[in-house]
Amino acid sequence: MTQTPVTTFPADETLTDERARELGHELGLRRDEYDQVVEALGRVPTVSELGMYSVMWSEHCSYKSSKVHLRRLEATSPRILAGPGENAGVVDVGDGLAVAFKVESHNHPSFVEPYQGAATGVGGILRDIFTMGARPIAVMDSLRFGDPTVDGLGPRSRAFQRAIVDGVVRGVGGYGNCVGVPNIGGETVFDDRYATNPLVNVLAIGVMPVERLQLATAEQVGDVAILLGSSTGRDGIGGASVLASQEFDEGLEDKRPNVQVGDPFREKSLIECCLELYDRDLLAGIQDMGAAGIACSTAELASAASMGMDVDLDAVHLREPSMASWEILCSESQERMLALAHPDGVDEVLAVAARWDVPASVIGEVVAGDRLRLHRRGELVADLPARSLADEGPTYDRPRERPAWQDGYGIVVAEDLPIPGLADDGDLAGFVAKFLASPSLAAADWVHGQYDSWVRGGTVLGPGQGDAGVVRLPGSARGIACALDGNGRWCELDPAEGTRRVVAEAFRNVACVGATPIASTNCLNFGNPERPEIMWQLATSIEALGEATRTLGIPVTGGNVSLYNESRVGGSDDPRDTHIWPTPVIGVLGVIDDAAMAVGQAFVQEGDVVFLLGDETRPGLAGSALQAYLDLPLGGRLAPVDLDLEARLAVVLGEAARAGLLHSAHDISDGGLVAALADSAVLGDIGVQIVPTERKDPAQLLFSESPSRVLVTTPSDSVRELARLCADAEVPLADVGTVGGTTIDVQGLLTLSLEDVRDAHLRGVPTAVDPSLVTTATGEVVT
Amino acid sequence: MRVGVITFPGSLDDHDALAAATRGGAEGVGLWHGDTDLSGVDAVVLPGGFSYGDYLRTGAIAQHAPIMAAVRAFAADGGPVLGICNGFQILCEAGLLPGALLRNSGLRFVSRPVFVTVERRDTPFTRGFDHPGPWSVPLKSGEGCYHADPATLDRLEAEDRVVFRYLPGDNPNGSARNIAGVSNEAGNVVGLMPHPEHAVDDDLAGGDDFLAMFAGLASDVPEHESLSR
Amino acid sequence: MPRVAIDVLLKREILDPQGRALERALPGLGHGEASDVRVGKHIELDLDVSGDELATTVESMAHDFLTNPVIETYVWRIIQPDERADANS
Amino acid sequence: MPRVAIDVLLKREILDPQGRALERALPGLGHGEASDVRVGKHIELDLDVSGDELATTVESMAHDFLTNPVIETYVWRIIQPDERADANS
Ligand SMILES: Nc1ncnc2c1ncn2[C@@H]1O[C@H](COP(=O)(O)OP(=O)(O)O)[C@@H](O)[C@H]1O
Ligand SMILES: [Mg+2]
Question: Is A173 domain-assigned?
């Protein structure tokens, strides 16, 4: 292989091998990765090429640490129209409609600039959805923050944590509200493990007629590449900015923030523009521009079609004309798409774009062969095999090792906790009220009360109303349901069982509203994969994820991996303290034939009978919310989840909902029975009297988080029918009480006034996070 | 009855407003901000959303859209015009309704159902309500705090032009005198912050308390219905 | 081409909740010294007009469009390159 | 007590969607003369500190709290009563 720079490249693009290797290193390319680049090219890369390879072969874009494991998730189902590897999974939901959905993280950007980080996270996942041909109809957000009730130093100070929460929630709302996609749910968790590394995962759902599905494989030689959307600027190329040391201009670094600013208004126009282009069948292919912008989208389109592409970077509409080629290529400016059109249709495409006031420029052409060739100021600046960039990056099977600290968890006594008020015959009700006000358990109204959940007129169950969000599909009685769940503490304790439990919970949440779960997506938030312990957590979790989703019949249609999430606890350098809890967040999609029959969480009617469906209460305080609340060390053993029982439970819930037997359904999870009762009672503004049928340890009865349990309420005249369904499906049910009154009562143990619980439940989050306690959960000024 | 709904760049609830008009028994007609005529519709709705991203000021850019000249003329002629949320903001910016919408006093976007009373039931948009309520309707806005100077407020009250009011003690955004919606002098132009188009279907989260608004609009009305009391 | 800066605030008699929130938050952040805090908009633009025309153009732009006279009020001035709020970026 | 005005803009290389939208709208309103439009925040406050301390106070306030230095930048100055943006209200 040659060491001499190719003379046909302009001087400012040319590097010596030594310099290129050095820069490559600074850009995060390993020595052997750099060699692989040289091998793919047969020469030393140009500056632009080096920039492109370093971004495309990064963990974020290439999944190099997780790929070998993600293969284990592969699954097939006749319903799946597009699976992992596409921008989003697409499933057939019947009636000629297909649904695209996917979840993605924006963790690091949300720490650096909470508002914009979260906002652009929403924008990015929406583009994944409409790239597939679907109109976005819902978003959900899963948020994990530090504990704002603990006041520490610097980033751990309350003010800092509150600023993150405030910015992220405003950002999710600011973007989603303005782009006009309803938020239908999510989760909000506070735990010190996320103090300097919040998790911001956003899921989006879209719908389309099956035939509108856009798969980027149809292009032909001569097809024209059109850049649609915002101008390309210097934002989001922080990582690649070491390339600027090539230039003379000093102090340029800080001018290249890796933060991007979102423009939801532009995104809205872009959505409408693209949907019109699909409907008029004007496109041969389309790709959104996320990480690595033009480099990534051109390489992916060309590679997917096994073709080449010639691109003229001078045609790209720039925000700053002085941008270097590598800056144009690596820019992550938001709200951009790359579309391919037949030459005859280009004028029409440009006209549609103009109507929606979306800037558009023709920047290239599909050519025979496999080369991606990029020109700038008339000269070639990059010439590489598209496939090498998009699909032939390095993959690693990194060393894995079960962490020694796992042994410590096993010996913690978790099931026998000293519960104030229970152990000492004191004020148990007072303790429970405080417990329910802890921000992770309290109602998230302060969060989703800032999100539009009504727009586009399909929301049947919005955030906080059911175990899953439910949206009726346009022009149909049919609806889709979606739940998004994670639990880092469970997964830290036991990545395999924890992951199974999380999958089971998301599955169960979809079943609770009466929908049939059909597919799943996931976002895997883990620490540093170069540490064998973390790699073990990741691999173990993925294996369990594959197994659980196959068993439950909810094949994985796609997802996202976010690694290098680290949060130093108390400034410690000990490896066991520096990772976030391993946090796979699972999204499950379900279908409900008649959306109007969806079942919510709220208790509805005095006199309704309360049943506990599913498993009996088992020891379930290991890794529980109670353990965390009492500040006890994480530990114990997770009771295994019976996935067959989960599947049968889901069948019963679906049939009961279709038959109209259920007034409410809510699974028992974080915080145990007391938390579930509080949710349903507060939401329905009606009390409940529970008469425990099980002779259990009171602590377990009230707080156990053991899986496969659902509280349902049913009018008394439906009881027999429900019992028959349960018997047929071999799902245990126990009559545990009655809806009514103004208290939450667990006989012999606990009486809470509904008023107190409501107050605790609604004030928990704002009290902890609102930077100025002048407002209540819904924005009223309290003065 | 043909009800036109204007789509501005950034309109979001145009689709819902059309559906609501249809559900109320009218024919929904889509209108485009860049057009200069109203296609002969019998009523016009300026829907909710973030026209032009709400950049600069809510409604500030949209009020200059080409179609607004036709809307002004239509309104001056007594044609029924309804502004919902962003549409209300546009009508205020355009001077077709008095006052302005400021940032919510709590400084946060507020999205939740509110109860409002219908204070005046002789406008084209309220004649369908058979009692003053309170009626439940979703509210979702960051700049919904109704403001006008005291003299204007007094005049509005005196002339019975406060059309919708939040319940005392449940004012979600700090609006002056709990005002949720107002009308012009003639009563044919009405604006409100909550979203009636999200409250026309009992199967959905928003309920159907405001179906009466669209049903009333669509119902046959005498040619020269008197709008003033 | 002159560059113009236009500063917009809510009229004094209108409560400015943002300013108030800021004022209330500042003491907690170690800045008890601040009072009468107002938060508004800062707009900068290059204008391809000169002389007498400049004032008329800015005034009409500000009055008709950049502000809502029902609630807002403004001042404007010509600024030099080093007075741009983004001069240091 | 000195009154301080702080003008905040997004850094120059960062997209300013508001400024862009405004710039695109202005020609339609008969103001084709405007270019390089940026929209940011204008903050005014009275500060009960003086002399050397003033600069330190404002800088720390602006840096730590009023702006996010990752994306925003600012300038500040002392203003006279008639330079208040709400002087005319
Ligand atoms: N970040 C969020 N965005 C939207 N909805 C949320 C968010 N966080 C929580 N929710 C909603 O609030 C409700 C309560 O959430 P959570 O506290 O996680 O309780 P649960 O254990 O019932 O899932 C759920 O309906 C959920 O969808
Ligand atoms: Mg949950």
Answer: yes
Domains contained in chain C, number: 1
> Which residues 6+ apart lie within 8 Å of A211 measured at CB?
none
User: Per the domain annotation, does C89 fall within a domain?
Assistant: no
CB contact under 8 A, B204 and A458: yes
Q: What is the CATH number of the domain that holds D35?
A: 3.30.1280.10
The ligand placed nearest to the CA atom of residue A666 is 1
Q: Which CATH architecture has domain B2-219?
A: 3-Layer(aba) Sandwich (3.40)
Q: How confident is the model at residue B78 (pLDDT cuts 50, 70, 90)?
A: very high
Q: Is the CB of A196 under 6 A from ligand 1?
A: no
Give pLDDT, residue A241: 58
Closest CA to C62 of C79, C50, C80, C44: C44
**Å between B62 CA and nearest CA of chain D:** 9
Domain ranges of chain B: 2-219
pLDDT digits 0-9 by tens, B153-178: 999 999 999 999 999 999 999 999 99
Amino acid at position A216, single letter: A
Domain-embedded: residue A621: no
D52 domain-assigned:
yes
Q: Which amino acid is at D17?
A: P
| Secondary structure string (H, E, C) spanning chain B | CEEEEEECCCECCHHHHHHHHHHCCCEEEEEECCCCCCCCCCEEEECCECHHHHCCCCCCCHHHCCHHHHHHHHHHCCCCEEEECHHHHHHHHCCCCCCEEECCCCCCCEEEEEEEEECCCCCCCCCCCCCCCCEEEEEEECCCEEECCHHHHHHHHHCCCEEEEECCCCCCCCCHHHEEEEECCCCCEEEECCCHHHCCCCCCCCCCCCHHHHHHHHCCCCCCCCCCC
Tell me the mean pLDDT in the region A439-454.
Answer: 96
Mean pLDDT confidence for C13-19 = 92
A707 Cα to the center of ligand 2, angstroms = 12
Domain range for residue C71?
A: 3-83
**pTM of the full structure:** 0.94
* Residues A455-472, mean pLDDT to the nearest whole number: 97
Which of A181, A68, A701 has the alpha carbon at shortest distance from A451?
A181
Q: Give a yes or no: residue C14 inside a domain.
A: yes
What CATH code is carried by the domain that includes residue A284? 3.90.650.10
- Count of structural domains, chain A: 1
DSSP-derived 3-state class of residue A651: helix
C69-to-A417, B52, B100, B153, C2 alpha-carbon distances in Å: 64, 20, 10, 17, 25
β-bridge partners, A145: A190
Residues of D in Cβ contact (< 8 Å) with B50: none
Q: Is residue D89 part of a domain?
A: no
pLDDT, mean of residues B64-79: 97
Check CB contact of C16 with chain D, cutoff 8 Å.
no
pLDDT in tens, A130-186: 999 999 999 999 999 998 888 888 778 888 899 999 999 999 999 999 999 999 999
D39 and B55: CB-CB below 8 Å?
yes
D17 touches chain A (CB under 8 A): yes
CA distance A522 to D62: 40
Residue B158 contacts by C-beta under 8 Å, 6 or more apart in sequence? none
State the distance between the two ends of chain D, measured CA to CA, in whole angstroms.
21
Report the C-alpha gap between A328 and A318 in whole angstroms: 8
Nearest CA in chain B to A471: B204
Q: How far is CA A546 from the centre of its chain?
A: 17
Which ligand is in closest contact with the Cα of A711? 1
Residue of A nearest to D19 (CA): A263
The string of pLDDT tens digits covering residues C24-43 is: 888 877 787 889 999 999 99
Helix (H) or strand (E) holding D55: helix D52-61
| pLDDT surpasses 80 at A776 | no
Separation in Å, CA of C32 to nearest CA in chain D = 9
